Fold this protein.
Amino acid sequence: MHHYRLLSNGRLIDAPLIFKVIDPATEEIIGNAPDCTPGLLDDTVTAAQAAFPGWRETPIDARRERIEALANCIKNNAEELARLLTAEQGRPLALARQEVLGCVHWCRTIAKMDLPESTRIDKAGVTWTTRRVPLGVVAAIVPWNFPFALAVWKLAPALLAGNTVIVKPSPFTPLTALRLGELAADIFPAGVLNVLSGGDALGPALTAHPGIAKVTFTGSTATGRRVMSSAAATLKRLTLELGGNDAAIVMPDVDVAKVARRLFMGAFMNSGQVCIAAKRIYVHDAIYDQFAKAFVAAAESATMGPGADERTVLGPVQNRPQYERVKDLIEATHKAGHRFLTGGAVPEGPGFFIPPAVVDNPPDDARVVVEEPFGPLVPLLRFSEVDEVVRRANASEFGLGGSVWSADVEQAKAIGARLETGTVWINNVQLLDPLAPFAGRKQSGVGVENGAEGLLEFTAIQTMVA
Ligand code: NAD
């Protein structure tokens, strides 16, 4: 078994204790991760603070070059990283490869970005220059659903902007981040990039640590609230990418078979454990029955199994607590008397497998509609009027993404513009780009990730008057 170590101050180190990491498809142990102690955290924050002035003053072109070296490192080790990602996260290997190779593209794109600077000379001859400067030590806290990509999305722009970084993966999926730390240990000067894994105490210790200047966090809305309150003590800068309950609105003029297939993947890819998965699918009354039939057919023909098996379309749920939560929601849906069009029974383990479940037009206040299931469970909902469906789609505490499906793109865009979400896809779903700002409205988040705006989140403004 590989010996995983923390990356701290340029060195790979052990922690006195370790914790087990399991494969969600088999429930077998696939690795042991170091459990960072409060002392090691303090040492790492101190090292990252010490490395900050040198990295900040490193010319941006040299920083770009290091991020490009990181991209090459990921590319050269892509197959190993993808297999490890499948083993710890559960998703099919093809998707794991996409996630890892997507990070190569992400790093290369971010490495080309610039920090804006503007200068104005006023009538009195005073020069006003405004530039963007890095913040200090950034804590990057990552969830278990896209453990590799979400770490890279944070560390690449934070480093380009001149910050030093401590990456903290989820205790359920720490291995790819630890392996990246190992592979990249020599790419950055000591203390610039650090990777610390640990149990439930490590996240709160990071967000409360006075040496951290900024927290960039992706995870659930409930944890996001805790992060925000903990960060308040030292007024840390914050980016929070939180939960979603995305609506997909399917108009009556679509190619039903095609859209049903597309939305099946939009809802069930990564076994529904995607913040921007289609989680409430509103289908026009005129095509509801036809759509439901095609959607269920797609669900019933999708092969479920271990991600390492190349035939697998749907892997397991990533961890036991999430598996229990989804099972509880399925049970509550049965108890409330809502009808399943497919799924709704969960086989015995080993492995956290839940067959895709589709619920037939439950009421708007059903738990399966209001909550984010974050698993392979989705309701289909009938609608008949545009105003009605927009109101229902917006009746959510979340505001992450949404999609509109119609042969009439202008009509779809007009409907999409009325959705109270950070991203709207027209005849598409889950498409993201390193140059496109990604932000959650309402309780889906605070701040922005990706794009020029996402890069600026890792900076402060400095206006120089001369
Ligand atoms: P989570 O909130 O349980 O954990 C996320 C991370 O925070 C983990 O690393 C965890 O160890 C850490 N953490 C836990 N408690 C903490 C605390 N008090 N202080 C600091 N850190 C703490 O989330 P999860 O279950 O790993 O991920 C699933 C959630 O993430 C879903 O709600 C999903 O929608 C959301 N998500 C959002 C986005 C987005 O970009 N908006 C992307 C992916 C996932």
About this structure: Residues 141-146, 168, 170-171, 203-204, 207, 218-220, 223, 226-227, 241-244, 275, 372, 374, 400, 440, 445 surround nicotinamide-adenine-dinucleotide (CB under 6 Å). The longest strand covers residues 127-134.
